């Protein structure tokens, strides 16, 4: 990144001097700070044009024309959260301040889009039997079934890799050697992969207890190994960081239409009739972000399902947030789903 400190100007700087700073540093922004390094405003190319169109002279002070309420990031924000904030507000630059609003850095959209490495661990659940997909899974674990020319689990892995993630754990139980032989240590994708083997099935959340807890130092992504999705993982991480809580669970909107006319009654009298009403529910999408504290609360060799684990968090008041998943998502649980996945991938390839 270019040296943002050379883009600092004081409120008393003239417009002419500020234009020289903008031209020299090529950041398309000047950062207006006082003697205490407190951010007072910003000056962009657009601000300069508006000032000149408003008949301001080059001797006018920056204080008279700067933007006084710029969007900022705070020192504890991850790059994922910054990127989501910049995309939401259509920003090219984002000043970073401390708790006292002192300027401590500058992030640019160009810099963030260089696919920075994300150090959050990713835990992919690949130990299931895939009973509903038999006979396809008689000789192949469900996550290794090919959709197009790649296994489902590889498509999931690549989605995370493309977003900059590089620390992976994969849980195994059923036919683990096929998964290990295909993915190895992850070097083919320039990532690291560790395997968490369940000697006996521990439920959808029990494998968390087998993770090396001393290595889980950031919020952990956890995802079922039989999903196809194009979810924005960085946006999900930003959402989790923005909302306090021990867990964020992705949910899909599911509609169910009652196939009959429904009668609302008061005792023996009919109050209303609704023909084939549609009810909408949020259903678990099998993708989570979990705090390190929650991960470490699961003891080794403890059998627990994720709904049970999260329900306990809810009852304890720890906070479980819901992230509405609007992007493409498909749970490959049955043969019809597997066939649809093939069609979806072929359709995407022909676009």
Automatic annotation (TrEMBL):
It comes from Halomonas tibetensis. It comes from the Bacteria. Pfam families: CBS, NTP_transferase. This is Nucleotidyltransferase family protein. The lineage of its organism: Bacteria, Pseudomonadati, Pseudomonadota, Gammaproteobacteria, Oceanospirillales. PANTHER family: SUGAR-1-PHOSPHATE GUANYL TRANSFERASE (PTHR22572). Signal peptide: none annotated. Keywords: CBS domain. Residues 1-59, 66-122 form the CBS domain.
